[in-house]
């Protein structure tokens, strides 16, 4: 069975920082990360979606975490076709056409180079390419995926689709085959299942090295409300329990399984991650004094 690493999507979310989960004396940047990494073995970096990472931060993240800790890093918005503020681009690139493939190549170069210290320290889990809800399956989308994978040649990649057609029954086998051919881990999701944009809780394995599951909560406001509305959900024990056999099945087929909670309201994500760690013991790995 592969290692099961459980954590959250961000350790710096304002709601988490303001919740009181971080104890006094550990509320600065270094203290927060060290405190988090003592309790969980994996975290998702979401800030890199909004702005390019820096070499300095990658180096500090590696220095402040133990061996075996993993960072799953979300791809910069422009790399996945999301609207991107001009101010988020480096100053010398702000007059470039955002549809220019040459610009995307340069953005990728700067993005990946900034993450190299993290990768060289053995802390990089995967790069998460989360594509937008309007990224529907078809030849053009498949061409984008192939170009994305060529840019990221040699890097671990995970792909999350937000358009439900990718995983509908008629398309499911083709999507699985496509991601397998790209050597990209398919991201499974947990979310409300009665919405037009609901993604079914499927667990395809498209890479022998890694599988990723992201728990978004089960808010009925997904896709329509504010950020807090979309992700507000406290996972019940029975909701976590239904995922236990799925996670064990995934772990049987990969080297490493990352389970990440994205219900980022107050401390809901860390509490859900803690509860899932307890439910998955002894299979799950946790960074605390009990091992």
Characteristics:
291 residues, alpha/beta, TIM Barrel, eight-stranded parallel barrel, 11 helices, 9 strands, globular, DUF72, UPF0759_sf, DUF72 domain-containing protein
Explain the overall architecture.
InterPro entries: DUF72, UPF0759_sf. This protein is of the alpha/beta class and 291 residues long. It is built from 11 helices and 9 strands. The chain has one domain: Alpha-Beta Barrel (TIM Barrel). α6 links the parallel β4 and β5. α4 runs parallel beside α5. The two termini are 17 Å apart.
Give a brief outline of the structure.
Helices cover 34% and strands 16% of the residues. By secondary structure, the chain is an alpha/beta fold.
The secondary structure category is alpha/beta
Low-pLDDT stretches? none
Tell me the count of domains.
1
What is the residue-averaged pLDDT?
Answer: 93
Counted beta strands: 9
> Based on the structure given, which CATH architecture is correct?
Alpha-Beta Barrel
Give the neighbour order of strands across the main sheet: 1-2-3-4-5-6-7-8
Radius of gyration: 18 Å
- N-end to C-end Cα span: 17 Å
Count of DSSP helices? 11
Shape: globular
Enter the CATH topology name: TIM Barrel
Residue share in helix: 25-40%
Largest sheet composition: 8 strands, parallel, barrel
Name the helix and strand elements from N-terminus to C-terminus, one letter apiece.
EHHEHHEHEHEHEEHHHEHE
Strand content: 15-25%
Assigned CATH superfamily: Protein of unknown function UPF0759
CATH C-level name:
Alpha Beta
């Amino acid at each position: 069975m592969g290692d099961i690493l459980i954590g959250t999507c961000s350790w710096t979310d304002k709601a988490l920082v303001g919740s009181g989960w971080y104890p006094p004396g550990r509320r600065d940047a270094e203290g927060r990360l060290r405190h988090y990494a003592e309790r969980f073995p994996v975290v998702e970096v979401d800030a890199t979606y909004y702005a390019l990472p820096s070499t300095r931060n990658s180096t500090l993240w590696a220095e402040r975490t133990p061996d075996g800790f993993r960072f799953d890093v979300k791809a910069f918005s422009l790399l996945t076709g999301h609207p991107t503020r001009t101010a988020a681009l480096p100053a010398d690139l702000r007059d470039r056409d955002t549809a220019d493939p040459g610009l995307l190549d340069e953005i990728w170069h700067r993005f990946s180079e900034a993450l190299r210290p993290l990768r060289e320290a053995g802390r990089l889990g995967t790069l998460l390419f989360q594509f937008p809800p309007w990224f529907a399956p078809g030849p053009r989308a498949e061409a984008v995926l192939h170009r994305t994978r060529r840019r990221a040649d040699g890097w671990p990649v995970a792909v999350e689709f937000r358009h439900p057609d990718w995983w509908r029954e008629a398309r499911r086998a083709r999507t699985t085959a496509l991601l397998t051919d790209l050597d990209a881990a398919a991201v499974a999701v947990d979310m409300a299942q009665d919405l037009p944009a609901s993604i079914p809780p499927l667990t395809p394995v498209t890479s022998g090295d890694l599988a990723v599951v992201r728990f978004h909560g089960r808010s009925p406001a997904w896709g329509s409300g504010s950020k807090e509305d979309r992700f507000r959900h406290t996972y019940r024990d029975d909701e976590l329990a239904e995922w236990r056999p799925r996670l064990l099945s995934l772990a049987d087929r990969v080297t490493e399984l990352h389970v990440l909670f994205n219900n980022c309201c107050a401390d809901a994500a860390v509490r859900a991650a803690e509860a899932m760690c307890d439910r998955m013991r002894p299979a799950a790995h946790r960074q605390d004094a009990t091992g």
